[in-house]
Each structure stands twice: as C-alpha cells, then as structure tokens.
Write a structure and sequence with these properties.
The chain has 330 residues and is α+β, with helices and mostly antiparallel strands. The chain folds into 3 domains: 1-63, no CATH class; 69-207, no CATH class; 232-329, Arc Repressor Mutant, subunit A (Orthogonal Bundle). The protein is 50% helix and 8% strand. The protein has 15 helices and 7 strands. InterPro entries: AraC-type_N, Homeodomain-like_sf, HTH_AraC.
Length: 330
C-alpha cells in the first residue's frame, strides 16, 4: 500500500527561496511534482509527501548541503498551533514532549524520541522509511530544525554536548557547526544531538498556562482531523493502486468508498486534490519503479498502467517528469 501523507507547502517554499536569486530554476525544482507555481500563493494548499520529496530530490541535485540550510530556517513559528503550544509550555522538557506527541502535525519523516541517560538528554531520530537517497538530507533538516526550535523556545542557544550521525562524514561537514556547535561524530550508532539534561527543567520565557491549555486542545482536535483525513486518503490510494491496469472511474470509486460521487469530490477538494491528480501520481510512482527494471519494455509498462496506447503513456510521463520514459530509464 502506498501512503501519501499530506503536508503544507512550507518546505517547498523554503527550497524555492533558497534559489530565489535564480528564478529560472523554478521549473526544474518543481519538475515531476505536479505542483503549479500558482499553488505557492495559497496558504491553505496541501500536498502529498510524494510531491514534497520530488522537489527535495530536484533541489538536492543542485546543492548537497541544502538540508542543513533549510533546517536553520525552520523556526518554531512555522508550525502554527503546535508551535504556539510549545512556546507556551512551562519548561523545555514539556515543550519537547509536546512536539514529539504530535508527529503528524510536526511533519517529520522520522520516529523522534527524547530520552535521558544520566546527566545527558538525547533527541534521537530513527526509522526512516522513505526515499533512501534523501535520508541524509531529511535527517540534516530534521535535527537542525529541532535544534533551532529548542533555541527559539529558550530564547537563547541550547548548549550541545555532542551530535551523532550514522552516515559517513559529508564533504561539506564544515558547515555542521552552524547548527551543531559541539563535537561531531559520524558513522555513529545514533542520529541524535545531546545536551545536559538539566536544561529540560529550564522555564520558558513565553510560558502561559491559559494559552497552553487552549493551544493544546486545538492541537488535539487538528491532529484527529488530520489523521482521519490521512486514513481516508490512504484508502482511496490503496483502491486505485490495486486497480491501475483498469482504474475505476470516479463514480465506481465512490461506490467502493461507500459514498456518493459528490461527497467524494468534496472530500478530495478539501484535501487539496482531485481524482485525476491522485491517479496520475500513482501511475507516475509505479512508472518510475517499473522503468528501473530493464525487463519491463515501455509498451508493457503503458499497458500495465491502464493506457491503451504507448504514445499516451509517453506523453503523460513527459508531462509528469519533464523527460521521456526512455531518457528517464537511461
């Protein structure tokens, strides 16, 4: 089953801003994502993680150290109600536990954990299960952002004792101290940063019990709505994925979802997508996977994805990725 968790345009917008002085690169950065530049002007737009990861893949081809830079720009204020709930918490430890309580609202690609061992506190990231070529990029962005959020919460830099990374030292490791000003260890057993545990008891300068209770209540409601929608969208994607060779029309899909076509259209619109967009996204993902297998000729891939003519598939793939299927395979 494919999962397409929804997220905001925040990361995509930050990526485009990193290349703001080169606006001619925008089509290259958005290629294959299905994101229209006009979408960036709508604050309520939601995209799938697949779309976000495609933009990250495009950007990483231009700058290998981009994850660190993006992490240094992802302040606590970018997380809406969750950010304000954290800012109004009593202590740093309370705020971190709150952030880790709502991973869907945090938008992380990792399982995050806060643990205390003796006099040290560890913020660890593990269980990455997305595009392998983006793991280092996403890890750098994740931990650099979490460190920045700690600084924002405290109103001062959180002193680190160490930072550890499970991968080889990258060529741009000289830029790591901008986020992790502490001893660095690569090829380690954890992805984590470490700080003196007594900082968890540090009172936060913006703590407010009344505001915190209100924001926490809203976060719980938003998390319930968000995860419910995610499950509903996941079911639709599962049904389409199982029937790609002969995909159901919208009315047939509505019957399988036990709702009316009108209700299905409305729910998809609320999620910021529509039937054809979901179908195209699934076809694109499957096409890329099959193109990586040399024993699948393009005509067979077209047939497998429900196209009656190979030319139609070639045209669609060109529109999705910006390149022909044969060039993508090469």
């Amino acid at each position: 089953m494919l999962h397409a968790h929804l997220t905001t345009l925040h990361v995509v917008s930050l990526i485009l801003s990193a290349f703001a002085e080169q606006p001619e690169l925008t089509p290259q950065l958005l290629a294959g994502s299905g994101i229209d530049p006009a979408d960036l002007n709508c604050a309520d737009t939601r995209i799938t993680r697949t779309q976000e990861l495609q933009v990250c893949t495009n950007a990483l081809q231009l700058r290998r150290d981009l994850g660190l830079e993006l992490g240094r720009k992802m302040h606590i204020s970018a997380y809406g109600m969750l950010g304000y709930a954290a800012l109004s918490s009593a202590t740093l430890g309370d705020a971190l536990q709150l952030l880790l309580q709502f991973p869907a609202l945090l938008g992380t690609y990792f399982k995050l954990k806060l643990q205390v061992e003796g006099e040290l506190a560890w913020v660890c990231a593990s269980d990455y299960q997305h595009r392998p070529e983006l793991e280092v990029f996403n890890l750098e962005m994740c931990l650099a952002s979490l460190k920045l959020m700690c600084d924002d919460l405290l109103g001062q830099p959180l002193p680190l004792s160490a930072a550890q990374f499970r991968y080889n030292e990258p060529q741009y490791s000289g830029r790591y101290p901008l986020s992790f000003n502490c001893p660095l260890q690569f090829n380690a057993t954890h992805n984590a940063f470490v700080f003196p545990a007594h900082w968890l008891q540090q009172p936060l300068p913006l703590a407010d019990a009344v505001t915190h209770r209100e924001m926490l209540s809203r976060c719980r409601k938003q998390n319930t709505e968000f995860t419910t929608r995610q499950a509903w969208l996941g079911r639709i994607r599962q049904l389409l994925s199982e029937q790609l060779t002969a995909p159901p029309g919208l009315e047939q899909l509505a019957q399988q979802m036990h709702c009316s076509p009108r209700t299905l259209r409305r729910h998809l619109q609320e999620l910021g997508t529509h039937y054809q967009e979901l179908l195209d996204e699934l076809r694109f993902e499957h096409a890329k996977a099959l193109l990586s297998q040399e024993d699948w000729p393009i005509c067979r891939i077209a047939e497998h994805l429900g196209y009656s003519e190979t030319a139609s598939f070639r045209h669609a793939f060109q529109r999705w990725s910006g390149v022909a299927p044969s060039r993508f395979r090469a």
